[in-house]
Amino acid sequence: MTKPTLMVLAAGMGSRYGGMKQIDPVGPGGETIMDYSIFDALRAGFGKVVFVIRKDMETAFRETMGDKFARHVEVECVFQEMDKMLGGHTQPPERTKPWGTTHAVLMSSETIREPFAVINADDYYGPEGFRMLAEHLNAGTGDYAMVGYVLRKTLSEFGTVARGVCEVSAEGYLKRIVERKKIAPDGNGAKDTEADGKVVALTGDEPVSMNFWGFTTGIFPQLKEYFAKFLEEHDADLKAECYLPEAVSVLVGRGDAHVKVLRSTDAWFGVTYREDRPRVVESIGKLVEAGLYPRRLWGE
To answer: What predicted TM-score, i.e. pTM, was given to this entire model?
Structure first.
């Protein structure tokens, strides 16, 4: 049986965080968040890792990561280049912002030939999600999958966050995702401030997408078509991004995809803002002390 591949989206530069948070150490042995994700993925049975990075961060990425992962698993790097996968469209010369996570996933369309998972480099997901997703990908189903987390557990006390809020059927399948971009804690719940200033109340119990997906290679032509239509409407917009949750939500709405929602009870945490980092370091430390991870993750 071919083992599934893990795709790590690491091209974002962390503008709100104020640095290259993908390679910021948070573990007792100098590990990054993605170290823990890759460790969990290997324990779950993934057999290859593909990093999607920006060309201008290649040197820093390779100097920090070096051959560390390659000693344990097959590794490839692909670059999210803004002038690639645009079809007949021309990138505005003033644009500096990447085209978003849908575009990032498409960068691996010529590299990945097996079922695969997609994660963000700067999110900690926990081992349970990787186990569930590996089992799903190995089952041979044509259905896609998403690991969902409880909204309340994914917020930051230091500013707003963007989350894909999910509506799930009684059978456990994704019905749609609403991308809410300015969510903040509000008592025991949460609230989102929309572009027009309207405030939407949320319970905090909603399942949300944290960009933890399971796909077959059938997703690539579907995303390519969706991204082409996105460019028809937004190619002149210097800040427009094509988000993967929105793309999947459209595919589901059209009946072109079925996405099983896998509910994880593991804690999620990430470093949206630099002020989040101490909490992440503390959380990792507690998991190490509890025996979930070794003190030096790779035994080095």
So the answer is: 0.89
